[in-house]
Fold this sequence. Notes:
This protein is mainly alpha-helical. The chain has a domain at 1-44. It contains one helix and no strands. It has one helix spanning 2-45.
Amino acid sequence: MKRFWQIVRGTLLRIGYFLGRINTFLLLTLSFYLILLPLALLWRLFSRRTDSPGWRPRAELPPDHFKRQY
């Protein structure tokens, strides 16, 4: 009887591992395409920032700026 339950347990563990891999892939893919991508596109579309996108310029650093960091 113990051998029977070991076979059942092993089979269920294999099925659970397989379903876990598929569910992870499906959930991550669906959450990206159904939630994150539309939010990012809406954010970009309705963003109120009018200056140039990307890096903002900053003041020039003096040449000895990195000499004594701490």
